Amino acid sequence: MEISQQTANTRKRRFFDNLMRGVFLSAAVVSASFIFVIAGIILVEGIIPFVTDNQGVGSVDLWKFITGATWLEGVTFYSNLYGVGFIIVSTLYIALLSLLVSFPIGVLTALFIAKVAPKKLAESLRTVVEILASVPSIVFGLFGSGIILKLVYDFSNLFGYQSKGGNSILSVVLVLAIMTIPTITAISEVAIRSVDKAIEHGSLALGASVTQTNFKVVLASAKSGIFASAILGIGRALGEATAVSLVAGGRRSGFSFDILDTTSTLTSIMLEGMKETVGIDYNIRFSVGLVLMVVILLTNLVLNAIKRKVGNVHVK
Amino acid sequence: MRKILIAILFLSSFTFVGCGPSEDEPTFDTSKNITVYTRDTTSGTRTGFMEGIGFPEASSSDSVLVQGFLIRDNTAILNAMTIDEYGIGYVSLSSVNATVKGLAFNGVAPTVANVLNDTYGLKRAFNWMLRAPGDYPSETVEGIVNAFIAFLGTTDGGDIINNAGAIALPSTTTWDSIKGQHPVCLTNNAAVTVRLGGSDSIQKVAEALTAAFKPKCGNFIAEHDHTGSGDAYKRTNDPAIKDTSVGKDIGFASRQFRGSELNVPESLRGRLAWDAIVAIVHKENPVSNATAEELKSIYNGTLKTWAEVLE
Questions:
Q1: What is the per-residue DSSP string for chain B?
Q2: CATH code of domain A81-310
Q3: Is residue B213, in this structure, part of any structural domain at all?
Q4: A109-149, pLDDT tens digit by residue?
Q5: Are residues B218 and B137 in the same domain?
Q6: Do B260 and B297 belong to one domain?
Q7: In terms of Cα–Cα distance, which of B273, B293, B285 is closest to B94?
Q8: Where residue B136 sits, what CATH number does that domain have?
Q9: Which end of chain B is more exposed for a tag (fewer CB within 10 A), N or C?
C-alpha cells in the first residue's frame, strides 16, 4: 500500500519534471528561432537585387557591389549600379578609431573605480557609468548633432580647414566613443575586480609599488575580460545607426581616411531613405544588412582568435 | 538618493562644458567653398526643389550633383545652417525659423503671403480633380466628395493642411457654419467607400484630411491609393481608365494641371494648398537672394565659392 503510494508520487513528480522540461525547451526554441527568422528574412530580401532583374532594372553585380566606390550611379529606381566597398572600409575604420579613443579611457576609468577610488566615490561612479550605458543611442546622436558638430566645425576652423558643418569621421568617432566608454568600463571593471587578491598581494610583497601592481599585474591578469569589453564595444560601434547618421554627413562616393571629411557607415546608409523607398532601392538595403552581418561576424571571429592568443590568467 | 544627486551633478557638469561661451565674432570669408546640403533621392522636397530650380534630373540622381555634397534630413539641414557658415540647403517653408536665413527666390522673399499671392516661385501647387457630376458609384459618394471639397476650404481643413507641412489657402469659413449644406454627413456612411488617389507627395496631407473629416461625415471609408500626379486626371476623367478598378473619386496633383487635363470643366478642379520650399543659408551669409539659375549652378558645381555667387 505504502509502496504503491510512493510510486504514484514519484510518477507524478517525474511527469511534472518532464512537463517543465518541455516548457523550457519550447522557450529556448522560440528565442533561438528568432535569429533564424531574422537572418532568413534579411537573406531572402537581401538576395533579391542579385538574383532577379529587379522589375527591369537589371540585377546587381555582387563583386561590384562589394568593391564599389559609389553608392549609386545614375537615377534612383532605374539604376543597378550600387556599391558599398568604400562604406565597408569607412565602417571598419570608424569602429577602430572609436575604439582607440574609448578603450584607454574606459579601461583606466574601470581601473580607477575598481582599485583606486575611495569606496563611496567608486559607488557613485559605478552608478554614473550604469546610467550612461543605459542612455538610448538617439540621445547620444542629438548630443552629437547639437554640440559635437559645432565643436568639430570650430576646431577645424582653428586650423584653417573648412569642414562640412562638422559632419565628419571625427564627429562619428567621438559620438561612438562616448557611447562605448560605459560598456567598456562596466565590463572591464568586473574583470579587474575579480582578479585574485593573492596575485596582487604577491606583487606588493615583492616590493612593487601600487601603480606598478595595477598596470603590470592587475590589468595583465584581467586582460581576457578587458578584451571581451573591447569586443562588445566594437560591436556597439559597428551596429549603431541612429546616432551615426545624425553626424556622418551621408557620403555617397569615394574612399576617404581624412578624419574631417564626411562619411557613411553600413548602418547609416541602410537607415537613410529607408522609410520612403521601394523596389530595388529598398531591397538593396537588406543586402547592405547582409554585408553588415558578415562584417560583424568576421570582426568577432578575428577578435576572438586574438583573444585566445592573448591568453588568460586564472581569476576566481 | 545621494547617489542619484551626484550622478545628475556629474552629468550636468559634463553638458555645460559643451555650452561654454561662444567664440569670437565669425567673419564671412567669401572665398570659401560652398558646402552643399541635400535631401536624399526619396524625398518629395528634393523633387520639388530640383524641379523648381530647373534641375529635374537631380531629383532622383546623385551623380549629377556637385562633388562632396552632404545628404541630411529636414531637421539636420536646418541645424547644419546654424553651424556651417558656408553651407546651403533647402527645407519646406513651414520649417524655416529665425536661426537660419531663407533666401529670396528670383527677388521674392519666402513668406506665406508671397506664396498665397503666387509671386514666390519655388513652390508646388497641391490641386484636386473630381469626376463629372453624376459619374460616381453612388449619390452618397458624390455627396461625401462634395462635402470633403467644401471641408478643404474651411479653417478646420486649413489647420490640418498646415499641420501636415503645406500652406493652406486663406479662409474664414468654419465647417460648422457650412455643414448644414451637406446633409449626407448626418447619415451613417460606415459602408461607403471613397477612393482617393493621384500624387504621392500629397498622400500625407490627404490622409490627414480624411482622418479628420471621417468622424464629421458619418465615418465613411477613405481608400488612399496614391500613384503620381498624372493619375489625378487619368483615374477620374480619362474615359479609358476612370471606370476600371483603379478609378478614383478624387485625384490629387502636386503641380498645375496642363494639356488635355485642362479640358476638364473648371468646377471639377481646384487648389487645396501650396507646398513652398526655401533655400536656406547661415545667418552670417551676405547672400540674401538667389535666382533659379544660381541655385542650379551651386547644386551642379558650376559655382564653387560664395564670391562667385555674389559677383
A1: -HHHHHHHHHHHHHHHHHTPPP-SPP---TTSBPEEEE--TT-HHHHHHHHHTT-GGGGSBSTTSPTT-EE--HHHHHHHHHH-TTEEEEEEGGG--TTSEEPEETTB---HHHHHTT---SEEEEEEEEPPTT-SS-HHHHHHHHHHHHHHTSHHHHHHHHHTTSEEPP----HHHHGGG-GGGGS--TT-EEEEEE-STTHHHHHHHHHHHGGGGTTPEEEEEE--THHHHHHHH-TTTTTSTT--SEEEESS---GGGGGS-GGGEEEEEEEEEEEEE-TT-S--EE-HHHHHHHHHTS--BHHHHH-
A2: 1.10.3720.10
A3: yes
A4: 999 999 999 999 999 999 999 999 899 989 998 999 889 99
A5: yes
A6: no
A7: B273
A8: 3.40.190
A9: N
B3:A124 CB<8 A: yes
Task: Examine the domain organization and report whether B223 and B266 are in the same domain.
Answer: yes
At residue B16, the pLDDT reads: 45
> For the CA atoms of A188, A189, A192, A193, what is the dihedral angle to 10 degrees?
-150
Query: How far is the alpha carbon of A246 from chain B, nearest alpha carbon, in Å?
Result: 7
Residues in chain B closer than 8 A to A269 (CB atoms): none
Q: Strand runs (DSSP E) across A66-225, as ranges? A: 72-73, 81-82
What domain range is B43 assigned to?
A: 30-100+282-310
- Say whether B68 and A281 touch across the interface (CB within 8 A): no
Within this chain, do residues B257 and B167 fall inside the same structural domain, yes or no? Answer: yes
Contact flag B7-A145 (C-beta cutoff 8 Å):
no
Domain count, chain B: 2
Closest chain B C-alpha to A129 CA, distance in angstroms: 9
Q: Is A123 on the interface with B (CB under 8 A)?
A: yes
Q: Are B187 and B252 members of one domain?
A: yes
Residue B7: band (very low, low, confident or very high) from pLDDT cuts 50, 70, 90: low
Angle at Cα A89 formed by Cα A83 and Cα A91, nearest 5°? 100
Same domain flag for B192 and B290 = no
Q: Give the span between the Cα atoms of B84 and A207, in whole angstroms.
A: 57
Q: In 10 A of CB A45, how many CB atoms?
A: 17
DSSP symbol at A59: P
Are B180 and B254 in a shared domain?
yes
Question: CA angle at residue A249 from A246 to A255, to 5 degrees?
Answer: 135
B201 and B179 in one domain? yes
Computed over every residue of chain A, the mean pLDDT equals 89
Pairing assessment for the beta strands B70-71 and B123-130 based on DSSP bridges: unpaired
Residue B105 lies in a domain: no
pLDDT confidence band for B21 (50 / 70 / 90)? very low
B112 located within any domain: no
Positive or negative, the CA dihedral A133, A139, A141, A142 is: negative
The CATH number of residue B37's host domain is: 3.40.190.10
What is chain B's mean pLDDT, rounded? 86
Average pLDDT over residues A6-28: 90
CA angle (B300, B301, B306) in 5-degree steps:
125
Domain positions in chain A:
2-51, 81-310
- Closest by Cβ to B70, choosing from A70, A167, A276: A167
